[in-house]
Amino acid sequence: MDKFIYLQLPAGAQLPSLNFNGPFKAIICIEDDVTPDWRAKVSDWIVKAGCLYAMSWGRSCSAWDDSIDTANLEAFNWHKTPDHAHVVTTWHDDEPLSEVIWFSIHAARHATAEISKTLFLHIGQKTSKAEIDNMWNEVINDSS
Question: What's the pTM?
Answer without folding.
Answer: 0.93
